[in-house]
Amino acid sequence: MAQSGQVADAVSQVTGRPVELVEITTYGDTSREHLAQIGGTGVFVAALREALLRGEVDFAVHSLKDLPTAQPAELVLAAVPEREDPRDVLVARDALKFTDLIASSPTGVARIGTGAPRRMAQLNAYARAHGLEIETVPIRGNVDTRIGYVRDGKLDAVVLAAAGLNRIGRSDEVTDFLSVDTILPAPGQGALAIECTAGDAELIAALGELDDPLTRAAVTAERALLAALEAGCSAPVGALADVPPLSAPLERGDSRTDGQIVKEMRLRGVVGTTDGSTLVQLSTTGPVPDTHEGALALGRVLAAEMLAQGAAGLMGERAQ
Ligand SMILES: NCc1[nH]cc(CCC(=O)O)c1CC(=O)O
């Protein structure tokens, strides 16, 4: 509701037309099943898409990371607005930072709540690499439920998306931001998708005013990676495409065309076993894609390299 309200305001601003919010509860909102079981099939998305197809709403707002990678022919992503903070964050007891938490739990082993195989894989891999032990505990529920486990002392910390907390004005709960060098976010994390039916050219054009081409290129590359790995949104896959700032003066390797700096997009990807014992983590760079196909190619190239390193064998856990 919070993120849809923000999009509604933005749409009103660019179109000069009022927007009415229609509340729809999805299976993902009410089910307490583990995401590893129900994820990947659009549990947060399906009910909204049905409402679109029935003509009950004109457009829908999704968290982009919840969208299945296959796009239905009847629907279009009219806009991908500028991305929020893509990082995962820690909400820990005693305002602890991640490194202090895992080094100094009174029980010896920090208990960290997250239902996402991707987060488990990378948290466990980090702990192993530093000779530490942590316990990842599968949890689900809304922000209050998840933070409540820390308040009640049942868990030492929970991991959440920064974007979700920011959008509901709860970023003050964050005790540490997890560097994307340690924990790559889910493909599309922090971005929104504004979707409508394919027939309405006028609406598509109006919503398109909110599109941010750089965010769209980044999430297209991330999702192409996910699709090419044949993984769903609950698989232990992280990906982030960004445009690293060019350092001045220009260094070797920076490309120029007619004196113009061509910015590079970097795509990083990770796949791992949830126990963190094995990770395949690679990155690639190329000129910032200026076509949909170019963005898809960036993701597919990295996926091929990750598959060559054995990525497919690490994703068998997703059905558990
Ligand atoms: N898996 C559910 C979900 N889908 C989008 C967000 C957060 C907002 C975002 O990533 O844009 C969350 C919660 C979370 O991962 O903590």
Summarize the structure.
Keywords: Porphyrin biosynthesis, Transferase. By secondary structure, this protein is of the alpha+beta class.
Question: What do you see in this structure?
Answer:
InterPro entries: HemC, Porphobilin_deaminase_cofac_BS, Porphobilin_deaminase_N, Porphobilinogen_deaminase_C, Porphobilinogen_deaminase_C_sf. Its EC number is 2.5.1.61. Its cofactor is dipyrromethane. This is Hydroxymethylbilane synthase. It catalyses: 4 porphobilinogen + H2O = hydroxymethylbilane + 4 NH4(+). With 320 residues, this protein is of the alpha+beta class. The protein is globular and about 60 Å long. The longest helix is centred in the last third of the chain and has 17 residues. It has eleven helices and 13 strands. Strand 12 and strand 13 form a beta hairpin. It folds into three domains: 104 residues, 3-Layer(aba) Sandwich (D-Maltodextrin-Binding Protein, domain 2), CATH 3.40.190.10; 90 residues, Periplasmic binding protein-like II (D-Maltodextrin-Binding Protein, domain 2, 3-Layer(aba) Sandwich); 109 residues, Double Stranded RNA Binding Domain. The strands form four sheets. A five-stranded mixed beta sheet has the order 5-4-6-3-7, with helices on both faces. Strands 1-8-2 form a three-stranded antiparallel beta sheet, sandwiched between helices. Strands 9-12-13 form a three-stranded antiparallel beta sheet. It binds ligand PBG. The ligand NCc1[nH]cc(CCC(=O)O)c1CC(=O)O binds next to strand 6 and helix 8.
